[in-house]
Amino acid sequence: MKPAAFDYVRATSLTHALDLLASADPDGETRVLAGGQSLVPLMAMRLAAPARLVDINRLAALERLEVIDGRLVIGALVRHHRLATDPRVASAAPLLARAATQVAHPAIRNRGTFGGSLAHADPAAAFPACALALGATLTLASAAGRREVPATAFFEGLYQTALRPDELLVEVAVPAATAASRSAFVIFTRRPGDFPVAGLAAVARAADDRSAVDRLADIRLAVFGVGDTPLLADTAAAILESGPIDAARIDAAVAALDTLEIRDSATASVRYRRHLVGVALRRATAALLRPEAVACR
Amino acid sequence: MSTDLPAPAGEPVPHRRTWRLLHGRGRYVGDIRLPGLLHAAVLRAPHAHASIDAIDTAAAAAVPGVMAVFTGADIATVCAPWRGTHGLYPRLAAPLQHAVAIDTVRWCGEPVALVVAASRAVAEDATALIAVDYTPRPALADPEAARGGGPLLHPDLGTNVCLTAAHEAGDVDAAFAAAAVVVEETFRFGRHTGVPLEPRGLVADFDPSERRLTVHHSHQCPHQMQHEFARLLGLAEQRVRVIAPDVGGAFGIKQQLYGDEIAVCAASLLLGRPVAWIADRLESFSADIHAREHVVRGRIALSADGDILAFAVDDLHAIGPYSQYPRSSAGEGRAVLAQTGAPYRYRALRARSTAVFQTKGMAGHYRGVGQPIACAVTEALVDRAARKVGLDPVAVRRRNLVRAADLPWRAPTGLVYPRLAVADCMAALDAHVDLAALRRDCDDARRAGRMRGLGLATFVELTSRGPGFYGAGGVPVSSRDGCTVRLEPGGGVRALASVTEQGQGTETGIAQVIAAALGVPLDTVEVITGDTATTFHGGGTWGSRSMAIGGEAAWRAGRALRAEILDVAARLLQADAAALDLRDGVIVEAATSAARLTLAEIAAVGHFRPHELPAGPQPQLVASASFGPLDGPFRAGSGIQLAVVEIDPDSGAVRLDRFVVVHECGRVVNPLLVDEQIRGGVAQGIGATLFEELIYDTDGQLLTGSLADYLLPTAADLCDIELVHVHAAPPESDGLGLIGVGEAGTVGAAAAVLNAVDDALAARGASIGQIPCTPERILTALGAI
C-alpha cells in the first residue's frame, strides 16, 4: 500500500493551478488533490497512479461560501464539516446540511471537499445526487476561461464527468431554499458512515395552496449508490406531482422506479437495492409532506 | 486455598501496558529499525488456481534499490517445504506446501515471488514488473462441490477431502424414532477472519558469521516459531531467537507458520542482511488465516416433555488449499464434534465433520476454533425444536442443562466434565433479568407491528488444554508454560514468562499472581514476555490458556522464591522461617507483623554480601517453575448469552438492543481483564453474525478484501454488553486451579444473536439459518425481496 512515485506541486494561485492543468505532464496523468479522501487511498492501493498531483488546498478563493442573488455559492474546497455546520447552508440548502452529517465519519468530513466529491463522481457518493436534486450549476475553469455546466450534464458515468483534463471545478451554485422548499435525505448503510447500499436525495416545493397539504410540486428525486451515476427518478417524481399524494400514488411512484438502471455489488443484489430505493422513496415522500418529521435511516 | 486469591490477585488492576501504548511508546515490529535493514514486498497470485509456466524477474531486479527478487524455487534452496499432518489423524491428507509457490498457485493471494529492496515502496514498484505466465485451472470455491469431487487441487492426494472424522454414542436411531419432534436444518456460516489492528509482520535478521537468526515477529507463539524456523531453515534451534515485541492483536491469526513470513527469514538467510515485511491490509485479507466457512446439517430429537434425546450433525468446512501448519486442520472439526450439545444432558449423538480443500485463502484457527459453530447449531436447533413442540425455548434449556448432580458429566461427545456450572449460570441470569418480562416485551412489540426478538445461547468453552492433542499427535506445540522469578539487587522482582501478550493483559495478570505469591507490592514486579532466548520454552497464546497455565507456573515460581527468601531471612535473623512472613515487600514476624527486614536488605546480602550468611546453601534468589495441565484434557468455563434485537422490516437492518453475558470461569485473577476478554469476544461474535463476511466469487476471487467491504462492528453498532459473573467452586488443584476465558465471548455470541434474529422472524413465519444475518438475507427470508 505504497503509492507509485508521483510529482507533487502545490498551486499558489488559481492561475497557477490552471496553468499546471493546461500543461500536460509527459509522464502521464495530472490529478487535482483537494481533500484527498478518495484519491489518496486509491493511490495507496495503486488503483490510481497519477504522474503529478496539483494540490489546491491553499487556494483560499475556493473556500467561498455565500448566498448571492438567491443562490448559495459553494467553493470547491468547502469541507463537508462546514456544510454540516454553517448556518447559511442550513437555511439555504438544508438538504446539503443534512447529507453532510451522514457522509462518512468526522475525520473524513474534516478533510473531504464538496468540489472533490463532485469531481470524483463516485457513484456511492451522496453529494452528486444532492447536486442533481437541487439543480446545481457547476463552474469549471481552465486557462482558457470559465464555463457553467448544469449537474444534469456533469455526471457522465462511473467516475466520469464533463470535466476536461485542463479544467478545475471551482464552485457550485444551488438555488437558495425558500419557505416553500422541502427536502429529504435517506441513506441506507450497513453501519453509520459506510458507503451506502442505496440512497435518495429529494427536493420539492409545497403547493401554493396551503390547504393542499397532500400536494407537492417541482419534485426532484436523485437516487444514489445503486448505479454508475446518481439517477434522476423523473417518472416517479412526475407521478407524485400529478395529484394528491395518497397510498396509491406512492405505490405507483415506487413502481415507476423499476425502470432505473440499478447495478449489483459484491454485497448487494439488484433486487435488494431496488427494494431499498422504494423504501427510501416512501420515507422521503413522508418527509417531504411533513417537513417537521426528519427522515432518517 | 480459598476461592479468593490473595491480593493483588483478584483485583481489578488496569492493563499495565495501556499507559505506555497511549503515550505512543509502543514498540511493534514495524517500529524496529536495524542497521542495513531491507524491506520486502510479496507478489501474490491473481488466480485462484493456475500453473506457473514462467517467471521473468529481470525487469524487477533492475529497478534501482532492489536487492533481490526471489521466486519459490529460490526460497526453496534454503527453506524446506512442510505438510500439516497430525499423528492422531493418520488419514488426514496433508499436501506439501512451499513457502512461495513454485509450479502451481491454489488461492488468490498465494505468494509467488518476494522482492527485497531498500524501501517497501521500491519493492512494491518492482513487484509490478515481475512477469508471470500462468495457465489458469478450474477454481473450486464451493465446499459442497469439493466434498463431491471437483477439480483436484492436489492430484497426488487423489481427493479434495482433507479429513473426515466421526463420532457416535448411544442409540441415535432409536432416539430419533422415539422423538415427539425432530427438527432438521442446514446452517451456513460465512467465512470470517480475525482482523488484528496490527497486521502480521516480522523483521528477520540472519547473521551468517554465526548462522544465528533473530526474528522480531508479530506472533502469539514465538517458541513454536523458533522451533519451526530452525527446523525448516536448517539452523540450530539454540541459535534461533524469536522476539514478539508489542503485538497488536492476534485472535488465532498469528498462530500458524505462514509461507510469506518464513520466506522473509529465508531472504535474510540468502542476503545476510535484516529484512522487514509488514502485511498491508489488502494482503492481510487475502493471506491471513480465515475461518468458519461451515455448512452444517443438524438434527435434534426432542420428547413431548422437552427432553433433548439426541443430536445428529454433519459438518462440512472449507480450509483452503492446504492443511495449516504446524497445528494441522484437524482442530476445527474436532471442536465441532466435541462441543455439539455441550451444555445439555442428552444421550445419543451422531456427528461427522469433513474438512475439504478449496481454492480460497487458508482457513483455520480463529478465536473459538469450531466451538462457535457447534454452539450456534446446538442452540438454534434447541430453539426450533422447542417452538415446534410448543414449549418455551428457555424452559427447554432449564430442563436439559447439566446439573451439579450430574457431575462428573460423561457427555455423548466422549468428553468428561468434572465441573460445569451452566445451571448456576441460568440461576444468575434469572437474578439479573426477568426473562418472562423480556418475552412479553417482544410479544407486545409484535402486536404493535414491530419485529423484536429474544435469543439465548448456553455455551461451554474448553480452555487450557493439556498435551493430549498436539503433543500426543506429534505436533511440536507446547501445552506447557514456564516462569522464572528473580529478586533484583534493589529488592524489586523481575519475571520472565513464556506466555505472551497481544493486548489482552497477560503480563498484568502474571504480575498480580507473582505479587500475590511473593507478598510484594504489584508495582515492584516487572514481567518480561515474548523472547525465546530468555524465557522458558512454552506455548504462548492459544486456546484460552495464558492465565490458567502461565499463571499457574508464575504462582509456583513465586511461591518457591518466597520460600527461599524466607529461608535466607531466617538464617540472617537466626529465626525460624515458619515464624516469618513476607508481606507487602517486608519480612515480618508472622505473629505480630513486626517488620524485621526489607526485601532490599535480603537482596543486598544475597547478591553482594553472601559471606555474611551463616553456613548453608548459597543464595539463589531466583526460582523457576513450568506447568502443564496433566490432570485432565481441558478445563471448562461456561455461561449463557442473551441478545435482544429489533429488525426494521422495511430495510432488514438489525439493531442490537440488549446483550447480557453470564459467565463462570472459577477464580478470577483480574476481573477487569476478564470483562475485556468477554466483551471483545462478544464483539467478534456479533460481527460474525451481523456484519463480517469474506465473499468469493465462483472464480475464487475475493470480493470483500478491504475494510470498506469486510464490515467489522464498531462501537456504534453494538449495545452495552452487560456482564454477570458466577463463581462456582474452583477445580481441584494443588495450585491456583484457574480456568481460561479468552474465547468465551466468541463461543456463544453468534448463537445468541442468531437466535434473537430468528425469534423475531419466527413471528412472521420466517427463519434464517445463515450468518451473517445481513439485511438482504433477512428481507429474503421475509419474502420482501
Automatic annotation (TrEMBL), chain A:
GO molecular function: FAD binding; oxidoreductase activity
Superkingdom of this protein's organism: Bacteria
Cross-referenced Pfam families: CO_deh_flav_C, FAD_binding_5
InterPro entries tied to this protein: CO_DH_flav_C, CO_DH_flav_C_dom_sf, Diverse_Substr_Oxidored, FAD-bd_PCMH, FAD-bd_PCMH-like_sf, FAD-bd_PCMH_sub1, FAD-bd_PCMH_sub2, Mopterin_DH_FAD-bd
Record has Flavoprotein as a keyword: yes
PANTHER family: XANTHINE DEHYDROGENASE SUBUNIT C-RELATED
Name of the protein in question: Xanthine dehydrogenase family protein subunit M
Automatic annotation (TrEMBL), chain B:
UniProt keyword annotation of NAD present: no
Domain Aldehyde oxidase/xanthine dehydrogenase a/b hammerhead residues, every copy: 23-138
UniProt entry keywords in alphabetical sequence: Molybdenum, Oxidoreductase
This protein's record includes keyword DNA-binding: no
Gene Ontology MF: a single term: iron ion binding
Protein name (database record): Molybdopterin-dependent oxidoreductase
Species classification: Bacteria, Pseudomonadati, Pseudomonadota, Alphaproteobacteria, Hyphomicrobiales
Pfam family, one: MoCoBD_2
PANTHER family: ALDEHYDE OXIDASE 1-RELATED, XANTHINE DEHYDROGENASE
Residue intervals passing through the bilayer: none
